[in-house]
């Protein structure tokens, strides 16, 4: 068959990747002459492995009907279907992930694909639609019918989802235990109230960058979801913390990076008594005053990230050190307000501290380092770099007395166990 029968080979970008395709028997064309060939769309969804999802078209010769091969469109999404190894239909647990790899306007196709998955998967437990930024609420209508088995949903960066979409989720997915709404800018307190009334089993909730929510929505979650254990409210500047008042003791993990928590709000945040992990990285202050002394009421706290909390003072550090005896890892990196009294309090009270971050703290000096050296008997790792008031002699003295403490110069933004693990089904 001559080349004109196939028409318009694409050779403008011939390179190493194209040569590899040729070796695999793949040739790229700009278009196909439909007078000579028939295109038959095929959908093959079960089972899928991790790979780029491409629309698949079977090419047939119009004259004889013979199969010429397959054509594939540009990769648009990452699609995964993972049936469990068990052959029993009653115990199968399915995993579907559809993730955008590049900007695209074919969201209706994604919605249709989701409907087909849900219709054929009565035991579906997890669906991830991460990255489908223009996915509309209408794409979730199938959840009303086929969502009862779902336990985990991710709308990570699905900024097209609104309260109407959450209403469909709450109606059809009463057994949800994990939900990610990161960067769902159009979700409001009303949506959270609707969600919490039906999805009482929620344990993990990611509301990062949900800038339209406030303490009202947070309060609804805690009133109606007694088993909540992890919540992310990073960059939710409308949350002061008072919505946490009366939160359950099951709440053990909280990320509130770059939030505007008030002093009373922080007291409400720790009111449940179960917090073990608290991330207040770059906590903002509307008053310009230190409000962090209230963290000292978190008696079970083990991991505390106060990196870049510029309003932090020695008084609050002392209150936390004396009130939270179980702390194992504490980041005070770029906390310039901590001086000798604060470091001395850490050395005196933090007897279980294993990892301490002091990178780029302007007011830690040799005497401060000595206080940490003489206390903190279980210290294993000290992240220290860019501390201008610490001399080489101070570091040498610390190393001689505490040779087993590793001194590291790397800066770590996140500490402790990954909170993301709490969003994975067990």
TrEMBL record:
Q: Which SMART domains match?
A: LRR_CC
> Would you name any one GO CC term?
SCF ubiquitin ligase complex
Protein name (database record)? F-box/LRR-repeat protein 15-like leucin rich repeat domain-containing protein
Q: Which chain regions cross the lipid bilayer?
A: none
Q: Taxonomic classification, please?
A: Eukaryota, Viridiplantae, Streptophyta, Embryophyta, Tracheophyta
* Top-level taxon in the UniProt lineage: Eukaryota
- For this chain's UniProt record, which GO biological process terms are given? SCF-dependent proteasomal ubiquitin-dependent protein catabolic process
Any Pfam family: At4g08330
Which residues, if any, are the signal sequence? none
Q: Where is the F-box/LRR-repeat protein 15-like leucin rich repeat domain?
A: 124-240, 289-398
């Amino acid at each position: 068959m001559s080349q004109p029968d196939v028409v318009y080979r694409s050779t403008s970008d011939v390179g190493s990747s194209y040569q590899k395709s040729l070796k695999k028997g793949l040739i790229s064309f700009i278009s196909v002459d439909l007078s000579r060939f028939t295109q038959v769309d095929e959908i093959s969804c079960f089972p899928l492995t991790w790979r780029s999802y491409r629309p698949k078209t079977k090419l047939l010769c119009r004259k004889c009907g013979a199969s010429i091969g397959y054509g594939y469109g540009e990769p648009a999404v990452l699609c995964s279907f993972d049936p469990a190894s068990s052959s029993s239909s009653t115990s199968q647990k399915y995993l579907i992930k559809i993730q955008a790899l590049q900007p695209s306007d074919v969201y209706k196709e994604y919605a249709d694909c989701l409907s087909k998955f849900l219709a054929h998967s009565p035991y579906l437990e997890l669906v991830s639609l991460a990255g489908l930024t223009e996915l509309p609420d209408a794409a979730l209508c199938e959840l009303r019918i086929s969502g009862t088995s779902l336990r985990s949903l991710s709308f990570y960066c699905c900024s097209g989802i609104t309260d109407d979409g959450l209403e469909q989720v709450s109606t059809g997915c009463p057994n949800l235990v994990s939900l990610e709404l990161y960067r769902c800018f159009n979700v409001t307190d009303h949506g959270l109230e609707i969600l919490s009334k039906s999805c009482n089993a929620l344990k993990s909730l990611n509301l990062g960058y949900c800038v339209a929510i406030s303490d009202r929505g947070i309060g609804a979650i805690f009133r109606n979801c007694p088993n909540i254990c992890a919540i992310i409210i990073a960059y939710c500047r409308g949350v002061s913390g008072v919505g946490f008042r009366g939160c359950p003791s099951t709440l053990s993990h909280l990320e509130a990076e770059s939030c505007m928590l008030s002093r009373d709000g922080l007291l409400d945040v720790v009111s449940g008594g179960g917090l073990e992990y608290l991330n207040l990285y770059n906590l903002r202050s509307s008053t310009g005053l230190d409000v962090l002394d209230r963290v000292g009421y978190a008696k079970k706290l083990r991991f505390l990230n106060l990196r870049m909390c510029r309003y932090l003072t020695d008084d609050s550090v002392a209150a936390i050190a004396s009130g939270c005896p179980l702390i194992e890892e504490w980041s005070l990196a770029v906390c310039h307000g901590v001086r000798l009294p604060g470091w001395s309090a850490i050395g005196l009270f933090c007897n279980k501290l294993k990892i301490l971050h002091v990178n780029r703290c302007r007011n830690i000096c040799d005497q401060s380092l000595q206080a940490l050296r003489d206390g903190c008997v279980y210290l294993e790792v000290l992240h220290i770099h860019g501390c201008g008031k610490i001399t080489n002699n101070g570091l040498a003295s610390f190393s001689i007395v505490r040779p087993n403490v590793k001194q590291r110069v790397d800066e770590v933004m996140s500490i402790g166990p990954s909170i993301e693990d709490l969003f994975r089904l067990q």
